[in-house]
Amino acid sequence: MASYIVLDKKNPADKSELPRIKITAELGYDERGKRIRRKKTVSLKSLSDRAIKKAITEFEIAVANSGPIDTNNMTYRDAVALWLKNHVTHLTYHSQRAYKMNIQPAVEYLGDLKLKDLKKIHIVEFMNHLTKQDEKSTNYKMRVNRVMLQKMVEWDLLDENVADAVKKTKQKKQEMSFYDENEVKQLLDLLPSALPKHRMVIQMALFSGMRIGEISGLTMDNVNFNDNTITIKHTLIHDKENDTFFLGATKNKKVRVIPMPEHFMASLKNYIKEVKKDRMFQGPDWRGVEGMDLIFCRADGYPHSDNAFSKYFLEFIERHGLKRIRFHDLRHTHASLLLSKGVNIKVIQERLGHSSITLTIDTYSHLTKENELEAVTKLSNMF
Asked: Which pTM does this prediction carry?
């Protein structure tokens, strides 16, 4: 965090002398407990709040990057590098990965353009370029670009966000896939033929609505058999660059506790007993990651890769001739079944871990409309 003081003029009679401020950036303490500070004196054309804020921001970023910033020659590529280093690194692992991947096309297309020369037409041309490449992801990549440019405005490196005025491309809304009640019954009837671990994982998704990462990151202490609840507090993350696994926060960074069906919890209890037996049998060959007492791991205790459960699920339903849906669609199936039974939308939001009830309503709006029509029909039949 930086502070500043306004310095007195060297020669008060000299009207041409520019006003100056001294900026001090606090960088914490060294190993001896001494404050670490960086200071800089800056001459400004005026002492307006905007001019002072811009000078402080440039100094803070320069200190963070251990070098001065040449704002006149800063390119789009330079701006993205600043954004990644000073903002994105503070986000969750999944957000970092998504932002890095989806800003790359903009860097390739706009990278050498000076930031101060960026115009709306450049953003429009970039959007048209994306649409030709991959229509499905255009709006998300444009959103990431807009978020990055907005941060440049906040840091006073841009006067305006030229991406704000560019309208989204019209895209066909992808229909949600899920199983209806009869299809769920077919799946459950076939599950006894699945491998025990995958059978439990599929049932977990159906009965809880949990995300695949949350199921993969479920640990022994997250399960309470006394009141048949599961505490969802983290998600399993695979850092592919370093080939390591760790437990990160859930998508909305909140812990939630959800009740589960009694018959499922009885099956889960038996399954966990078998997992513990396998662990004892493995002995020194057990490869479980320290601090991760995972329920659904490989036979030697090591975490599964990202797509292991999804791949098995797809192979299983294809082998038995069931309608093809993704593993994630089991989450939608869970929500749709609850809605069809008249469960309150707030309860569904809490089970799914959505950040707001608006997100739940928007995601399942087609189903809530069906329930509304059904309610009107029932009301009509009453009179």
From this structure: 0.68
